[in-house]
Design a protein that fits this description.
The complex is a heterodimer of chains A (about 450) and B (about 500). In chain A, strands 14-13-10-11-12-15-22-20 form an 8-stranded antiparallel sheet, sandwiched between helices. Chain A has a 5-stranded parallel sheet with strand order 3-2-1-4-5, sandwiched between helices. In chain A, strands 6-9-7-8 form a 4-stranded antiparallel sheet, with helices on one face. Chain A folds into 3 domains: about 100 residues, Rossmann fold (3-Layer(aba) Sandwich), CATH 3.40.50; about 70 residues, Dna Ligase, domain 1, CATH 3.30.1490.20; about 240 residues, 2-Layer Sandwich (D-amino Acid Aminotransferase, Chain A, domain 1), CATH 3.30.470. The longest helix of chain A has 17 residues. Chain A contains 15 helices and 23 strands. Chain A is globular. By secondary structure, chain A is of the alpha+beta class. By secondary structure, chain B is an alpha/beta fold. In chain B, strand 8, helix 9 and strand 9 form a beta-alpha-beta unit. The N and C termini of chain B lie far apart (about 60 Å). Classes of the chains: A alpha+beta (about 450), B alpha/beta (about 500). At the A-B interface, loops of A face helix 3 and helix 12 of B.
Chain lengths: ~450, ~500
């Protein structure tokens, strides 16, 4: 099968990113855009733009019927869902199957297998990959028992979602009931699913993930990424490969991720997320993301592949062109997510109109963005303005390049977190590499944040 | 009304016919490869041993890696290699075992379709190559019926060849290869029918150069007469002494009611890319050709004609081109009418050039002509002129070449080089000067990206880099102003 016209059911920088690869491959693009995005860069780059509804994403970017209808109207033979929104939605994938449209992503049953955290953990366990000790809880009693068994402190999480929503940290039995109630309410509101599970809280952990690519039969990994720099479980800085881990541990992670994906006969691009327990020097399975990730460019930088191109190739039914040994890793890459957030005021979102946008250029510097002077940052969606990715021969060179590139990155009109990144990249602990997930909190506490 | 497929020759034959095979680098090919793969071509004429040699010599690029990378980028479209008998890159005839390794490596690196042809129309030699290629694992082998005009090359001659090819299990298809663009629509009608009758179910393709503007019409005749695949080129790599323009052929085929299942948008993107590349690299675009009756006499294909013109230009003797072409006719007759397909146009043209610029005819004779007269390339279609033969064979060099040892088998060749080198490297080292292969290997990793629109900017930057530091550089044109100012502030310079 050859895909000739792809509908992009997304917005912002990822829509632009997907369009650019399609253009390079000679594939026409149809952008499914909300009313708020009809003047966006993606809308201007796409061959066709179809309005799929009002700004509110539940009526547009989350509206399966509107998206499938747009694919029909635009005569697209495939849908690329990007990340977020409906990217891992089984209903969209199933609707595509029914409509005879190619869904650029894993098969419905694979989305099912990894979309639900408990199912994903069960599958991981079968493939030999253990999660953080814990389990589903249906009652307070059950939660008490399980927490005592795995040891305090514990984390309460939502089965139906991610991104930190519905998550609660509990240090003793007395606070369990209230935390459960809060988590269930938030989970219900965010994901329409109040079910919860608990797991052991790891005091010093790193978020490390392995990029995998499968064609439904063969699976290869494209190395590790470290995404430990997070604020409220939202990643801000990512790097590849993950620094300061032993090669033995890294190889084990690669192997575990590939074994898991093989167990699923995985087709497409996926990320197996691990929690590296710094004190125990071991890792647990967290979850698998069955889509392209925001931070995919750091992987592209070190392995030289275009991951969107690979997604399309696999969706076209082609076998992987690469064997594991063909994948060569070169140097070190870092990505900073530039958000329209007033970081000195508790990261308050800062929608508005960009008056000036100047991006750094040069060898080993890449900016993925949908922003230019005059662009509007609507209040309805996430605040990502763009991603600055640098690639150096080693981590020291990459850090140095990032420092310089950030100083040449200019956005005015909306508040940004550029100055936070500039401070962070100069931080001594960051410079050493391999910070844990609590680092950013410490960094922000230690005078790196002007008091409002 | 027929369903017609297209094979594109832009990268190999188009490039060779119009740009002397110098046109393409690996990044230039890779940057358009995914789009070419989506057009829906039956196959791409991708490389030849000459083309591989140019990659090493001119671009310091590994031709094997080029094949591998192109294969990875174009999984839907078979890539074709065109060979001539027992040659690889150099003019020397190679040992059969050596050629087997060549074919094995081509297949292993990603070539799946092969052209077999023999300039002397020696079917035995051609089928022997086909057998070796099949053994290497090729999925499609297509035999050339090389078209020319002479008393012996009538329809019955080609029908007889076709009959022999159709019986071989190692030949999957055949094509009428008209490297000089001599086929008229009238002759196409009788020739195609005669050949098809003998081929039976074996598909027939047509490859006819535009040299004197005949092929556009011949292709339409061919479509009516059951030819399945028409070989074309894209944008500036079509016309001139190359093949007909894909977009024009598609439009004409549809005009006559035929169906062509290709993606017109992708095809237009390919043509546009080559046009931008030609402009950026200052390469000439092929133009529609006028009918030239005299050409039917000398029959020199486009690529060789371009080379000959360039050689004359280097000697500041451009004005002697018509004389050389006249001399080509004479030399070809004296040499027994070799069919004008690689390597013979090069050999005949070089000899014609020597005859014109030298003090006397055959005063200077290339080793290749001596080898030809000695019969090292096979048996000429008609005997070589007796006087010319005597003259050539009386040269002392003829005795040396007559005593030339037979080509070495690969295991002997291997002893000449550093132990442990790969087959790919062995084949290049055996066929090319060591310093050229060394320079290629020292060239570093192959680049992947090329954007024709960026070339003027790179050129500007390269030129600026060569100049002594200028404090201020300003480029101004309507609606555009570009300023560069030197500064002591590092950060500002980086900006």
């Amino acid at each position: 099968m050859i895909l000739r016209r792809i509908l992009i059911a997304n917005r912002g920088e990822i829509a632009v990113r997907v369009i650019r690869t399609c253009q390079r491959l000679g594939i026409e693009t149809v952008l499914a855009a909300s009313e708020a995005d009809l003047d966006s860069m993606a809308a201007r780059l796409a061959d066709i733009t179809i309005c799929i509804g009002p700004a509110n994403s539940s009526a547009s970017y989350l509206n399966i019927e509107a998206i499938v209808a747009a694919a029909f109207a635009g005569k697209a033979d495939a849908i690329h869902p990007g990340y977020g929104f409906l990217s891992e939605n089984q209903k969209l994938a199933a609707a595509c199957d029914r409509a005879g449209i190619c869904f650029i992503g894993p098969k419905v049953e694979q989305l099912d297998a990894v979309g639900d955290k408990l199912k994903a953990r069960a599958h991981a366990a079968v493939s030999g990959l253990a999660g953080v000790p814990g389990g589903e809880i249906c009652s307070l009693d059950e939660a008490q028992r399980l927490a005592t068994q795995i040891g305090w402190p514990i984390l309460i999480k939502a089965i139906g979602g991610g991104g930190g929503r519905g998550m609660q940290q509990v240090h003793d039995a007395g606070k369990l009931a209230a935390a459960m109630e809060m988590a269930a309410t938030e989970a219900e509101a965010s994901f329409g699913d109040p079910r919860l599970y608990i797991e052991r809280f790891i005091p010093r952990g790193r978020h490390i993930e392995v990029q995998i690519l499968g064609d439904g039969e063969n699976v290869i990994h494209l190395g590790t990424r470290d995404c430990s720099i997070q604020r409220r479980y939202q990643k801000l800085v990512e790097e590849a490969p993950a620094p300061n881990i032993s090669e033995i541990l890294r190889e084990e992670m690669h192997r575990a991720a590939v074994a898991f994906a093989r167990h699923l006969d995985y087709r497409g691009l996926g990320t197996v997320e691990f929690l590296l327990d710094c004190d125990r020097d071991t890792f647990y399975f967290l979850e698998m993301n069955a889509r392209i990730q925001v931070e995919h460019p750091v992987t592209e930088a070190i392995c030289g592949l275009d991951l969107v191109e690979e997604q399309i190739a696999v969706a076209e039914g082609r076998k992987l062109q690469w064997k594991q040994d063909d994948v060569k890793f070169l140097g070190h890459a870092i990505e900073c997510r530039i958000n329209a957030e007033d970081w000195v005021h508790d990261f308050r979102p800062s929608p508005g109109t960009v008056t000036r946008a100047v991006f750094p250029v040069g060898q080993g510097i890449r900016v993925d963005t949908h922003i230019q002077a005059g662009a509007t940052v609507p209040p309805y969606y996430d605040s990502l303005l763009g991603k600055l990715i640098v690639h150096g021969a080693n981590r020291t060179e990459a850090v140095c390049k990032m420092r310089r590139a950030l100083s040449n990155f200019e956005i005015t009109g909306v508040a940004t977190n550029l100055s936070m990144h500039a401070a962070l990249i100069r931080n001594d602990e960051f410079a050493l590499g391999g910070v844990d997930t609590a680092f950013l909190h410490r960094f922000l506490q230690n005078g790196n944040r002007e008091v409002a | 009304m027929a369903n017609i497929q297209l094979l594109d020759v832009s990268i190999r034959d188009g490039n060779q016919s119009l740009w002397g095979a110098m046109g393409f680098t690996t990044p230039q090919i890779l940057s358009i490869a995914p789009v070419m793969d989506r057009v829906g071509f039956r196959a791409l004429d991708f490389t030849s041993s000459t083309h591989m040699g140019v990659a090493v010599r001119t671009h310091k690029e590994n031709p094997w890696e080029r094949i591998r990378m192109a294969r990875a980028a174009m999984t839907n479209t078979p890539l074709q290699f065109i060979g001539t008998g027992l040659r690889f890159i150099s003019w020397e005839v190679q040992h059969p075992d050596f050629m087997q390794i060549v074919y094995d490596r081509l297949v292993a690196n990603g070539i799946s379709r092969f052209v077999v042809l023999d300039p002397m129309h020696d079917v035995e030699a051609l089928l022997e190559s086909a057998r070796m290629i099949r053994k290497a694992g090729a999925t499609e082998i297509i035999a050339a019926l090389t078209y020319t005009i002479s008393d012996v090359h009538d329809d019955a001659f080609y029908a007889n060849l076709a009959a022999q090819l159709s019986k071989s299990p190692h030949v999957d298809r055949a094509y009428i290869k008209d490297p000089s663009g001599l086929l008229t629509p009238e002759r196409a009608r009788t020739l195609i029918l005669a050949v098809r009758e003998q081929l039976g179910d074996m598909p027939l393709e047509l490859h006819s150069h535009c040299t004197i503007g005949l092929s556009g019409l011949s292709y339409m005749a061919a479509a009516e007469l059951g030819v399945k695949v028409l070989q074309v080129a894209c944008g500036p790599l079509a016309n001139g002494s190359s093949l007909p323009n894909a977009q024009r052929v598609v439009a004409n085929l549809r005009e006559f009611g035929h169906t062509v299942n290709i993606d017109d948008r992708a095809l237009a993107m390919v043509a546009d890319y080559f046009a931008r590349l030609a402009e950026a690299e200052n390469l000439p675009a092929g133009t529609p050709q006028e009918y030239d009756a005299s050409f039917l006499r000398h029959q020199v294909a486009g690529g060789v004609m371009t080379t000959t013109r360039r050689q004359l230009a280097e000697l500041k003797l451009e004005d002697r081109f018509p004389d050389v072409m006249r001399e080509v006719v004479q030399v070809r007759a004296e040499l027994g009418y070799p069919i004008m397909v690689t390597p013979f146009p090069q050999i005949v043209c070089t000899q014609a050039l020597y005859n014109i610029i030298g003090a006397e005819r055959y005063g200077n004779v290339s080793d290749q002509v001596i080898r030809y007269v000695l019969g090292k390339f096979g048996r000429p279609t008609t005997p070589v002129d007796a006087n010319v033969k005597d003259r050539i064979l009386s040269r002392p060099r003829a005795k040396e070449l007559a005593a030339e040892p037979p080509p070495l088998p690969p295991e002997e060749l291997r002893k000449r080089f550093k132990p442990g080198i790969s087959d790919d490297e062995l084949l290049l080292r055996a066929a090319m000067p060591a310093e050229e292969v060394d320079a290629m290997l020292a060239g570093g990793p192959t680049k992947r990206h090329y954007n024709p629109d960026m070339q003027p900017i790179f050129k500007l930057l390269r030129e600026l880099q060569k100049r002594p530091v200028a404090a201020d550089i300003v480029i101004e044109k309507p609606d555009f102003r570009f300023e560069l100012h030197s500064s002591r502030d590092r950060e500002a310079v980086n900006a």
